[in-house]
Amino acid sequence: DLNVDPTIPASVGPLHATVCVVSIDYLTKPVSVLSSVRERTVEGGSVHLVVSNRCFPTKAVGRWVRISEEERLKMVGDYLWWSGWREVEIVEVCNGRMKEGEGGRGPGLARLLGVFWAVDPLWVVRAVKVVQGGGVGEERSEL
Question: H helices of the chain, where?
Answer without folding.
Answer: 30-39, 62-66, 69-82, 108-116
